[in-house]
Amino acid sequence: MATRVDVTPAAAALMRQLREQHGPLMFHQSGGCCDGSSPMCYLEGEFRTGGSDVLLQSLAVEGVPEPITFWMSASQFALWKHTHLTVDVVPGRGSGFSLEAPEGVRFLIRSRLLTERELAELD
Description:
This is DUF779 domain-containing protein. By secondary structure, this protein is α/β, with parallel strands linked by helices.
């Protein structure tokens, strides 16, 4: 089954660590300011979402008891709706308020176009 968002093993490991330290997590894909287009990780519910946001996926990460929601603003989704995102982690501290900042690493997005088959499955 097609997905809009996946995570690398390194990102999954960091998500498990952050979940143990802080509790349930969520992501919101930033649209510009601060870390550019970095995915920002928050405690679930700490970033308020509403009608101007799209839930791209509820991520099932092994070792995390609940899904990790991944959101994007509706206006940004209109531009990225043909894109598959992979959450990864790299060394270096981001400049935002994402939970991983004190760990000396930052989440980032790797992207590719969705295939026609994937688009059909997601519609």
